[in-house]
Write a structure and sequence with these properties.
Length: 379
């Protein structure tokens, strides 16, 4: 099939949509599909995937994501009669609206991946632009979708809560599992947070929770790795100083090999998020053999089922209780949990597995719908 994916931008960072959408497209190509990924040209890249086509930004605020050239190209492709599926990723920018307009003109199947933007937390927080953008264009664009793609059951529930009744394909993001390296015990053990330093990530819970346990576990340190988001890093560093936190390090953004090594060196990964449609960093940590602590703000209930970590209520008290349990465990016990997580990722989150389900979803949408794949909720 001929499939066009649209995403706001692709950057050098190897997480979030810049990782998952690029790897999805590459995996679909490996499954024999004809795929083009379109994105806005936000800046130079050292290496660009051969299937990526970028377009310059047009006039207006950057956050609006206008690109008349992208719109024109999508319209031309849709009207050519040679495109089977348009698949858009994300919300709140015009580059997420253009595929809807093009699909309507060409009467083409439109798949929408909202990427967590419909969660209660996301809908209640963020820019005031949402209050205008939603009724004017965003809701209409989603109403026109033939099918939604959700990365977890919780995201499917968000789609239904917002009133959309189209079929929803529940297919997780995939993950590349790196070569295995056994955990090396040391004098100092590491609790790692890795991700954007953003209000939704729950650092305002993690830092007070660390204060509550730091004196009982002097052989542990807390490492905060990730880029700043709108000045929130300064706020969290100020909070750390106010709380007189010990053995805490703000290391900044890590990429590539440094990022993988941080996962491998860590004894436990923690993501106390308020809202996450998937949480690629959790999958990355597990793939590297590191058990994880994740709140119910992210869809990782499998951590408990697979003995690969802890899935806990959102809140400081539950986080403190979990840390007291987790940090008291031996090196060997945590390494064993990490192996469980790594095996889980290899079995259920491989890219061929994800791509094959996405291809079957496209085929169901454009062809015979007599038998619905088990991962598609058509209620």
């Amino acid at each position: 099939m001929r499939v066009i994916h649209a995403v706001p931008a692709i950057t050098e960072e190897s997480s979030g949509p810049s990782y998952s959408v690029v790897r999805l497209c590459g995996s679909l190509i490996e499954e024999g599909q004809d795929v083009t990924l379109v994105a806005l040209d936000w800046g130079p890249m050292d290496s660009q995937p051969p299937f990526l086509k970028t377009f310059p930004l047009g006039l207006g605020p950057l956050r609006l994501g206008r690109s008349p050239m992208m719109k024109r190209w999508l319209d031309e492709q849709a009207l050519s009669g040679k495109v089977d599926v348009l698949h858009t990723h994300g919300m709140w920018q015009m580059n997420a609206i253009y595929p809807r307009w093009a699909a309507s003109k060409g009467k083409i199947t439109l798949v929408a991946s909202t990427r967590g933007a419909l969660s209660e937390w996301a809908m209640q927080n963020g820019s005031a632009v949402k209050r205008v953008f939603w009724p004017l264009v965003q809701r209409r664009a989603l109403t026109a979708a033939t099918c939604f793609h959700a990365t977890a059951e919780s995201e499917y529930e968000d789609i239904r809560r917002m009133g959309f009744r189209q079929p929803v394909a529940i297919i997780p993001n995939g993950i590349d599992v790196p070569p295995f390296e056994s955990k090396q015990g040391g004098m100092v053990r590491t609790l790692l947070f890795l991700g954007r330093v953003h209000p939704k990530k729950g650092l305002d819970m993690l830092l007070p929770a660390w204060q509550a346990v730091q004196d009982r576990f002097p052989d542990w340190r807390l490492m905060i790795a990730g880029p700043d988001n709108g000045g929130y890093l300064d706020e969290m560093q100020h909070l750390a100083a106010q709380l007189h936190l010990k053995r805490i390090e703000f290391s900044g953004e890590l990429k590539g090999r440094e990022k993988l090594e941080a996962y491998r060196r860590a004894d436990i990964f923690v993501l106390p998020t308020y809202s996450e449609n998937f949480g690629m960093t959790v999958a990355e940590a597990l793939a590297a053999g590191t058990p994880a602590i994740v709140t119910h703000g992210a869809p990782w209930e499998g951590l408990n089922q697979h003995d690969a970590g802890w899935w806990i209520e959102v809140g400081k008290d539950s986080l403190v209780a979990c840390l007291e349990d987790a940090l008291a465990r031996s090196h060997d016990a945590l390494a064993e949990m990490g192996l469980h997580g790594r095996n889980w990722m290899q079995r259920d989150f491989s890219w061929p597995y994800v791509a094959q389900r996405m291809v079957a979803t496209y085929e169901w949408l454009v062809g015979d719908r007599s038998t619905t794949p088990v991962w598609i909720q058509a209620d």
